[in-house]
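Design a sequence for this backbone.
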């Protein structure tokens, strides 16, 4: 029979505390509940350490958020085999949307504080701008890449707004395909990439 839990500091965790372990613990909390649910105290409870130990490894909350954005969007761009700007843009956007759907709360944090934008997110934008320039729509104003990214963000926030939301990735694919076909100026040239279910 065990007695009551000891008062004072939590017992030392059997796991060695590290930044990667803290981030691995924090990411699902942020993904499911958002920024307000995440605290150093909650992380400390889950890891069976003190809040001070967590802050020692992660820094302040802003740094923790930046590290979570890095982790969540790391290696978002797959090895895209399609070299056509249309197909490449489609694949980039699909990969980004899939990752953003898992991390809608982190995406909200990035949009509220652009300084949280990770290298991988910048790379997505750069690659997309390159594709749209090859389609003839990526000049100095960059309207098309901004339109595509804004459409993606709108879709992500709509699709993640409730548990019974009927939106699917196929709905997203149909939307971006529609935009890309019209932007290409040659709708007959491109076979549809996304087929609605």
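Sequence:
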């Amino acid at each position: 029979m065990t007695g009551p839990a000891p008062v004072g500091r939590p017992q030392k965790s059997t796991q060695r505390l590290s930044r990667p372990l803290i981030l691995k613990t924090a990411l699902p909390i942020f993904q499911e509940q958002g920024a307000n649910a995440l605290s150093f105290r909650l992380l400390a409870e889950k890891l069976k350490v003190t809040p001070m130990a967590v802050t020692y490894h992660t820094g302040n909350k802003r740094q923790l958020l930046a590290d979570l954005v890095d982790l969540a969007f790391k290696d978002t761009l797959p090895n895209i085999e399609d070299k056509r700007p249309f197909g490449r843009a489609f694949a980039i956007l699909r990969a980004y949307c899939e990752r953003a759907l898992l991390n809608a709360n982190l995406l909200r944090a990035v949009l509220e504080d652009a300084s949280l934008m990770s290298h991988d997110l910048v790379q997505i934008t750069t690659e997309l701008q390159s594709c749209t320039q090859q389609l003839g729509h990526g000049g100095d104003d960059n309207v098309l890449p901004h339109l595509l990214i804004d459409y993606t963000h709108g879709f992500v926030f709509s699709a993640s707004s409730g548990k019974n939301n009927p939106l699917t990735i196929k709905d997203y694919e149909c939307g971006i395909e529609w935009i890309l076909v019209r932007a290409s100026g040659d709708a007959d040239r491109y076979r549809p990439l996304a087929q609605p279910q």
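The two ends are 58 Å apart (CA to CA).
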